[in-house]
Design brief:
- The protein is α+β, with helices and mostly antiparallel strands.
- The protein has one helix at residues 2-39; strands at residues 42-58, 61-73, 80-87, 90-98, 101-106.
- It is elongated.
- The chain starts with a helix and ends with a strand.
Length: 108
C-alpha cells in the first residue's frame, strides 16, 4: 500500500513541476513581448529558453528562481539578447543587451 502512495506522490510532484514550468514559460514570453514592444525592437523566433534554475531556502520557505534568455533585433539584422528572471511566477528582473546600451531593471 505504501508503494502506491509513493508512486502517486511522485507522479503528483512531476505533474506540479511540469505545470509550474509551463506557466512560467508563458509568463516570460508575455514579458519578453512587452519589453520588446516598449523598446521598439523585434522579438526573434517568438521564444524564450530556460538558462538557469535555482532553489533558495528562506525563512518563509523555498524560492524557485528561473532565468530565461530571449533574442531580439533592433535593426532587423543583428541578434541581441536579454534575460528575464522569475521568482516563482513573479517578475524579479529584466536585463537587455541593447545596441544603445545595456538595461537592467530590478523589480522591487
Amino acid at each position: 500500500m505504501s508503494e502506491g502512495w509513493l508512486f502517486l506522490a511522485t507522479l503528483g510532484l512531476i505533474a506540479w513541476g511540469w505545470h509550474s514550468s509551463r506557466k512560467a514559460h508563458e509568463r516570460v514570453v508575455t514579458i519578453a513581448r512587452t519589453v520588446c514592444r516598449e523598446l521598439d525592437v523585434q522579438l526573434l523566433d517568438d521564444t524564450v529558453a530556460l538558462r538557469r534554475l535555482r532553489v533558495y531556502w528562506r525563512r518563509h520557505g523555498f524560492e524557485l528562481i528561473r532565468t530565461y534568455r530571449f533574442e531580439f533585433s533592433a535593426d532587423g539584422v543583428a541578434r541581441e539578447s536579454g534575460d528575464v528572471a522569475l521568482n516563482g511566477l513573479r517578475l524579479d528582473w529584466v536585463r537587455i543587451e541593447h545596441p544603445d546600451g545595456d538595461y537592467f531593471v530590478k523589480i522591487p
